[in-house]
Amino acid sequence: MTGSYKDLKVYKLAYKSAMDIFWLSKSFPKEERYSLTDQIRRSSRSVSVNLAEAYRKRRYPKHFTSKITDADAEASETSTWIDFAKDCKYISDEIKDELIEKYDEIGRMLNYMASNPEKFLPKDRG
């Protein structure tokens, strides 16, 4: 596996999903600025950030796996915030379902990466 973390399908999906959440959350009420809005933006962005950090540490499978599982935890947190946004009536059922589907897919890809770190090792390892 060569190239940049930005070439990974999971990174592209996580980054796009975080940007979708950013734009959606701009319409959340002002009183949510320091709670739901801030939290959902942070956790969604952390998925991509942890992926980038993991990719830099892929020479060391245990470090790589640790950062990938951190990304997965952030994806799970984001899914929970999405549920709150829907139940607070800030987003529709349809938008919630679309976002949850994306984060479920991200979770599956991250789980694969964590279970198979050797597939992501740099070629020049040694």
**CATH class category label:** Mainly Alpha
| Number of domain units | 1
- Identify the CATH architecture: Up-down Bundle
What number is the mean pLDDT?
A: 95
What string, H for helix and E for strand, traces the elements in order? HHHH
- In total, the number of strands is 0
Question: What structural class do helix, strand and pairing data support?
Answer: mainly alpha
The CATH homologous superfamily is named 23S rRNA-intervening sequence
Q: Which stretches are poorly predicted, pLDDT < 50 over at least 5 residues?
A: none
Structure description:
The structure is a single chain. This protein is an all-alpha fold and 126 residues long. Helices cover 72% and strands 0% of the residues. It has 4 helices and no strands. It has helices at residues 9-25, 33-56, 61-87, 93-115. Helix 1 packs antiparallel against helix 2. The two termini are 15 Å apart.
In short:
This protein is mainly α and 126 residues long. It contains four helices and no strands.
Structure characteristics:
single chain; about 130 residues; mainly alpha; de novo design (two linked rop proteins); 4 helices; elongated
Topology record:
Blueprint: H1 9-25, H2 33-56, H3 61-87, H4 93-115
Helix pairs in contact: 1-2, 1-4, 2-3, 3-4
